[in-house]
Every structure is written in C-alpha cells, then in structure tokens.
Amino acid sequence: MLDRRLIREQPDVVRRSLARRRLPTSVVDDLLALDADWRTAATAVDAAKAERNALSARFAKAKEQDAASLGKLREQSGALGERIASQEHAATALEARLTELLANVPNVLADDVPDGADSAANVVLRSSGEPPKFSFEPKPHWEIGERLGILDFERGVRMARSRFAVIAGLGARLSRALVDFFLERNIAAGFFEINPPLLVNRDSVEATGHLSKFSDAMFSFDNGALFLSPTSEVQLVNLHRDEILEAAAFPKCYTSYTTCFRQEAGAAGKDTRGLIRMHQFEKVELVGLCRPEESPALHERIVRQAESLMQALELPYRVVLLSSGDTGFASMKTYDIEVWLPAQATYREISSCSNCGDFQARRAQIRFRPAPKARPEFVHTLNGSALAIGRTLLAIMENYQEADGSVHVPRVLQPYLGGIERIT
Questions:
Q1: Which residues are catalytically annotated?
Q2: Residue 60 — very low, low, confident or very high, per pLDDT cuts 50/70/90?
Q3: Could you report the per-residue pLDDT of 198-243, keeping only the tens digit for each?
Q4: What is the mean pLDDT of the chain?
Q5: Prediction pTM value
Q6: Residue of 146, 138, 105 whose CA lies nearest to 19
Q7: To 10 degrees, the CA torsion angle through 405, 406, 409, 415?
Q8: 259-272 per-position pLDDT tens digit
Q9: Residue 101 contacts residue 66 (beta carbons within 8 Å)
Q10: Residues paired with 260 in a beta bridge
Q11: 393, 379, 381: which is closest to 254 by C-alpha?
C-alpha cells in the first residue's frame, strides 16, 4: 500500500506511475478528494473533543454553583457527545473508503523500469548458455513425459479437473531431487529455511497484495476467511507481520518449499497443454527483508542466486527487466529469468524476482528501528523463485531429450537419484 503522504504531497509521481502501467490516473484525484474530506472530518472531531475537555473543566467549577448551572452544562455535554459520535462515525467511514480505494492502487514503479505496454517491451539484460542443437525435431515435454510414463495428464484431470497432472516414477524422483538441490544451495547461500502452513488467512494475502483486483483469483473456503497459498512469498513476508525488527539482524533472508495453488483466472486458453500453467504446482521461494537502502543490492543477490541454480543445471536462460506494463501489482521493479524451451523455440519464465519496496511492509506493518529509541520505519521486502519445480522439470525434459525419447539427467542431480544418468 502506498503512503498517504505520497499521494498528498507528490500526486504527480503516482499519476506518472499509473500512466506508465497503462492504468487510469483519475484514482489519484479521487484519493486526494477523499483525503481532504477525511482530514476535515478528523479536524472537526479533534475540535469537538477539545471543546468537551473545556466543558469538563467547567463542570469541576460548577459543582460549587447552583443546580440550574449544572443542569445546563449536562445538557451541553450530552449534545456535544452526540456530535462527537456523529463526527467520529463520518471520519471512520471516510477513512474506510480511502483505505479501500488505496488498497487497489499498485506500487510506484522504479525510475529505471523500461516503459512499455506489455512483455514485448521487456529488456533482455544478459543470457547464459547456448540453446541445444538437435539432429531431430525436439518434442514438447508432455509428449516426452507421457511416452516415458512420468507424466499423466489424463489421470490428473480424472482425479481433479483440467490443469492438474500426475507426476510419476523417475519424474517424481527428479522433482524431489530438484527440491532438495534448490533448498541445499539456497541454505548454503545464507537463506534460512522455513516450512510454513499452506493455508493463509485474509490478512496475509491482503498484506502481500495478492487479493487486489489485479490478481488472479485464489482458491478460498470458509467464506473467504482462508486461502490456499498462491506462493510461499505470502507466508514468508507475513512471518513478521505487526512486528518491529532489530536492524542489526538485517537482511533477513528466507527460503521455503511449498505446494502452491492458483485459479489462473486470467489464463483462459493459455498453455492448456503441459506443466506451464497449472492450478497446483511446487516452488522453492526466496524472500528478503531489509533496510530501504539495502534493497537494490538484495534484489540483485536474489536474482544471482536463482541464476546460480540455472547455471548448475546447465540450462540456457536469459534475464529480462520487465516493462512498466508487465510489472506486477506489488512490485516496483521485477527481473524475470526465462529458460529456453526447444519445442516452443522460445524462452519462458522460470523465476520472477521482485523488489516491493515498503509496499507490502506498510500493509503488514513490518517495521524496524534504524537506531535505539528511533522512530520505527517500514522495511523493504523482496522475493524470487529459486526455482519453480514443474517448469524446471519440463525444461530439463526438453533440453536434455535424446533422439530415442530418453532424457539425460543433469550431472548435479544424478547423486540425488542414486547415480541414475538417464530416464528411459
């Protein structure tokens, strides 16, 4: 959530960011009008309370006066109490409307985010590895997996519905190997492992911005009180909700492996085959909390950690800086790591690493004291996938496929599979 003072004091900064996101800017005027009305109402409440305090002082003196004077003061006090209650109700209603409107305003973009309407304007920063060259026509991962008996989409649909799959045999073992490999590498790099609940409450998803009107719908139940987590970013950020942290402990860096769930409401007709866009998937996540001045460096650290996993797996990839129109609701700046998929002859996202500034921390009330007894300030939060398990699995299947339909196991993963070098 944006700081109200930013809206009040630098409205053009917010207007410019909204315009760069290709969103209407009129909401800024609505916010300014509501904020002015709220401040007027709050001032009226303060003035009425000051009047009540003065009246209380007159009561103390009136005890020595006649009953008529006391009765008049009581009458004034009763009327003043009703006026204060009415004014407080009006101020509370205005603040609720202001908060509701502000909750759907996305984060202000960083200045170095490239301008553009969508992913076509994303900027490629660097690439690593050469796409493999095959002496045969490379097959898509769903064909490879079904032929090897390690992917079963038909049974996944039978058990649940579309966009669910069964991963079996050496496919399941390879997925588990990826989880262990990613976690071990992340822990060695200084990220502290957390095993959180998969269910999160409304406050948690609101805090991270996953319940905005710009997000795909999540799976919910208990009348919307609980949600299946769409990403463990939610849990890791909310570890410190409503806390004031010690600055000496920064940066706080976490990693977590969880199953994730998404409705993919905005993905109708997209990636209907294969593992690209599933309702249920697994992911290893990185989250960092730090001082504001530390967040650019921590952002780069998270990206480099995700890249190191790609390099260890010897998968060709590139890093892109997302354009203004492609940057997520809660993010001020996002890098995507995209892996090469031979069957599609294109790069596809396998990790998204974002700096959210104080946007999530303001919602979650996560603060720190820059010095003892100093006024608390909001932390900056950052997140990144390291990495998405299903997408890494399919990338291995497509990049390591052989002419006979088998799949070579990356060298770093072979010890996790008991030395197995090939899935046949």
A1: 262, 277, 349, 352, 391
A2: low
A3: 999 999 999 999 987 656 688 988 888 899 999 999 999 999 999 9
A4: 92
A5: 0.90
A6: 105
A7: 160
A8: 999 987 656 667 67
A9: no
A10: 281
A11: 381
Cis peptide before 251 (omega within 30 of 0): yes
Residue 64 has pLDDT above 60, yes or no: no
SS (H, E, C) the chain: CCCHHHHHHCHHHHHHHHHHCCCCCHHHHHHHHHHHHHHHHHHHHHHHHHHHHHHHHHHHHHCCCCHHHHHHHHHHHHHHHHHHHHHHHHHHHHHHHHHHHHCCCCCCCCCCCCCCCCHHHCEEEEEECCCCCCCCCCCCHHHHHHHHCCEEHHHHHHHCCCCCCEECHHHHHHHHHHHHHHHHHHHHCCCEECCCCCEEEHHHHHHCCCCCCCCCCCCEECCCCEEECCCCHHHHHHCCCCCEEEHHHCCEEEEEEEEEECCCCCCCCCCCCCCCCCCEEEEEEEEEEECHHHHHHHHHHHHHHHHHHHHHCCCCEEEEECCCCCCCCCCCEEEEEEEEECCCCEEEEEEEEEECCCHHHHHHCCEEECCCCCCCEECEEEEEEEEEHHHHHHHHHHHCECCCCCEECCHHHHHHHCCCCEEC
- What does the pLDDT average to over 353-380? 95
Q: Which domains does the chain have, with CATH numbers?
A: 4-102 (1.10.287.40), 119-423 (3.30.930.10)
pLDDT the model gives residue 43: 87
Residue range 369-386: mean pLDDT, rounded: 94
Percent of the chain residues past pLDDT 70, beyond the cut: 91
The tens digit of pLDDT for each residue in 298-345 reads 999 999 999 999 999 999 999 999 999 999 999 999 999 999 999 999
SS3 for 290?
Answer: strand
Q: Cα separation of 148 and 143, whole Å?
A: 9
b/e burial code for range 123-142 (CB count within 10 A of at least 16 → b):
eeeeeebeeeeeeeebbbbb
